[in-house]
Amino acid sequence: MAEQNDPQVNPVNDVLNIPKPVGEPIEINLKDRPVIKTKDFVAKDYSEDEFRKYIELYEKTFNVIKENEIVKGKVVAVSGNDVLIDIGFKSDGRVSIDEFPDPDNIKIGDEVEIFVEKIEDREGQLVLSRKRADIIRNWERIIRAKQNDELIQGKCVRRIKGGFVVDLGGVNAFLPGSQIDTKPIRDYDVFVGKMMDFKILKINHPNENIIISHKILIEESMADQREKLLSTIEKGQILQATVKAITDFGVFVDLGGVDGLIHITDLSWGRISHPSEVVNLDQDIDVIVLEFDEEKKRVTLGLKQLTPHPWENIEEKLKVGDKVSGKVVSITDYGAFIEIDKGIEGLIHVSEMSWTQHITNPNQVVSMGEIVEAIVLSLDKSDKKLSLGIKQLTPNPWQSLLEKFPIGSRHQGKVCNITNFGVFVELEEGVDGLVHISDLSWTKKIFNVEDFVKVGDMLDVLILGIDIDNHRIALGHKQITDNPWDSLEGKYTVGTEANVKVMKALEKGIIVELPDIVDGFIPASQLSVYQIKNFAELFQYGATLNAEVIEFDKESKKIVLSVIEYLKDKDQQEIDEYIAKFKITKKFTLADVIDRTKTIQDLKEEIDFKIDDVINEPPTEPQQ
User: Fold this and answer.
1) How far apart are CA 371 and CA 340, in angstroms?
2) Of the listed ranges 31-35, 320-324, 334-338, 478-482, the one predicted with least confidence
3) What is residue 26's three-state secondary structure?
4) Which fold has domain 485-614?
5) What is the CATH number of domain 2-132?
6) What value, to the nearest 5°, has the Cα angle with vertex 57 and ends 117 and 48?
7) Does the structure show a pLDDT above 50 at 37?
8) SS3 for 49-71, per residue?
C-alpha cells in the first residue's frame, strides 16, 4: 500500500504528469491534464475513450485538499514509528507516532483530525501533522474560553522566573506567581505537575503569549463571603484570621476574603522588635476590630486588646521595695528602661545606678538586652510610671565615708575629670570629690583649669566637707598649704611700688602678677590719664610695668594697683618711656598725672569689688 501511495512509483501520476505543488495550496484540475493515449499502456484491454472515462471516475473519488488546513482522516495502518492516514487524497500521509497523545491505543479505523502542511514535499509525499492540528484546535479552545469567560484546565509543568509555565493541552501559558493564590505562596514547588483550573487574562496573538490566573477563581468564589463580612463587620467585633504576610511594621491577615492589618504596636503589650516574635505565617489567630473604614474597606485589627492591660492589676504584682528583674529594652541619656513584664517597663535613672560613681552615660552600667535586677522605688498606676534603682541592691557606702575621709584629712587622688568650674579627683575606686576652681590656689586667679592641672595627674587635696544626702565631697588643694595672705599683708601695704607682669587683659582692667606669684588688678582708669579703648591689645601677656599698691584686702584676697599713682612723683622721662613702651596714642604729662591722681576715697567706688566679679566668676557647680 505504501508503494501505491508513493508519487515516485504511482503510474497514474506519471501518466497524468501532474506538476508537484510548491509553496501555495493548489487544487488538481482535470481540465489541465494532458491527453492520454492507449498506446502509453502495456495492457490493451480498454479503448482510449473507456480508459479516459475510468480515469475521470477515479479522480472524482478524491477530496479537494488544500495546504495549511485541518482535515479529517482515518488511520489505515501503523508501521513502526509511522501512522498512515487516509484523508481522501490520491495517497496516504505519514505521521510520526510520537505526535499522538496515546500511541499505545491507536487503532486502525480511528478517525483523527490532521493538519495538511504540504500536498507534496520534495519527494512528492503528502506531509501531515497531528500535533499542529491539536495546537490549532487548542488555540481555538483558548480563544473561545477568553471570549466566553470560561474556565480552562492546565498543568503546571515547570517553574520560571516570576511564575510557572502551564500546559493548556499543547499550548504553553504563563502563570505569574501573584496570580496563583490570594495568600502568599510559601513553597512554589508543590504546584509543579499539578492540574488546576484557570481563567485567561490576556492573549497576545502575534507573540503567541497567554497569561492566565488561578487567583481570580478564588476571589470569585470568596466574593459572596467578602460582601457578607463587610456588611456585618463592626468595631469591637472578634474575628478569626489567618496570618498571610509579616512586615517590619505589622501583620496582614485574611479574614475570609477581606484583608486586615495588625500594626506592630497592637500585637503585644510588651515591646517587640519584629512581628515575627509574636505570630507565624499561616497561623490561625483571633483578632479584634479596632477600626473599619467603610469607604476604603480598610480594617484595622488588634491582638493585644484581647487580653487585659498589664497595668490594670499592677498593685497585686508589685509594691515599693520589691526586687525585680527584667531586660534592658531602651537606653537614653538620662537612664535605662527595663521591661519586667509584658507591657510593664520601669526607668532606672542614672542617679539611681551607683552610690559613688558619677554616671554620665547609662552604657557605663547596663547594655541593651541585658537582664538586670533592680529595686522598685516608686509606682504610679495612673500615669503608668515605674521608678527602679540598681544602687539600692547594695549598702550605701556614703554612710561610712565620714569614717574613711574625715573632714580636714589630707589625701592624694587622681584627676579624673576637668570642668570649667573645677576638678574632680578620685579618692578611691568609685569615690570622687570636687575641687572648686576657687580652691585650687591662694594667690593665682585660674582662668583655664587645664593650665593648672591635667587629667591623670596626682593632686594633693584636703577634705573640706561631705554631703551624704546629696552624695557630694568638697575638696580643696590650696588648703594643703598655709594661707599666704597673712605674710603678704605686711609686704604689700598701700603705697608699695612693684614691678609686675601682665597676665591677662579683661574688660575692666588687667590682671598682673606680683613678685611673690600673687595676682593683682590694675583698673583701666589707672593705666592712663586718658581713656584707652584698646588697652587689651596694648597690654599683652608677659609685658612688665611698674605700679603702686592702692589697696590690699586680705579678706577678699585682692591687691589693687595703679600706674597713675606710681607716676605722680616720677619725672617726665619715665612717663614718656611708659607711653612709648605700650604705644599709648594720647600722650600725657606729669602735670596731667598729678591732676588725675585721686585719693583712695575717690577711687573707693571704682575699686570696691571682688576680683571674681571683674573676671566673670566661674559658674556654680552643677548637681552630681
Assistant:
1) 9
2) 31-35
3) coil
4) OB fold (Dihydrolipoamide Acetyltransferase, E2P) (2.40.50)
5) 2.40.50.140
6) 120
7) no
8) HHHHHHHHHHHHCCCCCCCCEEE
Residue 549 in grid coordinates = 599698691
User: Given the DSSP bridges, would you call strands 458-467 and 410-418 parallel, antiparallel or unpaired?
Assistant: antiparallel
Question: What local confidence, expressed as pLDDT, does residue 354 receive?
Answer: 86
**Which residue is it, cell 463587620?**
233
C-alpha–C-alpha distance, residues 65 and 118, integer Å:
10
C-alpha cell at 534: 584698646
Non-local CB neighbours of 2 within 8 Å, separated by 6+ positions: 79, 84, 92
Q: Under CATH, which number does the domain 314-393 receive? A: 2.40.50.140
Q: Which pLDDT tens digit goes with each residue over 148-167?
A: 888 889 999 999 988 999 99
One-letter amino acid identity for 56? E
Here the cell at position 302 is 488588634
pLDDT category of residue 34 using cuts at 50, 70 and 90? very low
User: Residue 426 and residue 141: Cα distance in Å, rounded?
Assistant: 92
164-211 pLDDT, tens digit per residue, is 999 988 788 999 988 888 777 778 888 898 999 998 988 887 777 899
CA 528, CA 526: separation in Å to the nearest integer? Answer: 6
The CATH class of the 151-217 domain is mainly beta
Cα 367–Cα 371–Cα 375 angle in degrees, nearest 5: 105
Task: Give the pLDDT score at 30.
Answer: 37
Mean pLDDT, residues 602-623: 50
Mean confidence (pLDDT) of the chain: 80
Residue 555 has pLDDT above 80, yes or no: yes
pLDDT of residue 14: 37
pLDDT over 90 at 89, yes or no: no
33 in Cβ contact with 15 (< 8 Å)? no
DSSP for 254-320, written as a single string = ESSS-EEEEEGGGT-SS--S-GGGT--TT-EEEEEEEEEETTTTEEEEESGGGS--TTTTHHHH--T
- CB within 8 Å of 570: residues ≥ 6 apart: 590
CATH entry 2.40.50.140 includes domain 398-480: yes
Q: Can you name the CATH fold of 238-306? A: OB fold (Dihydrolipoamide Acetyltransferase, E2P) (2.40.50)
Range(s) within the chain of domains with CATH label 2.40.50.140: 2-132, 151-217, 238-306, 314-393, 398-480, 485-614
Q: Does position 613 have pLDDT exceeding 60, yes or no?
A: no
Take residue 272 and report the three cell numbers written for it.
Answer: 517587640
Going by the DSSP 8-state scheme, the letter that residue 618 receives in this structure is P
Q: Within 13 Å of residue 202, how many CA atoms lie on the same side as its CB?
A: 9
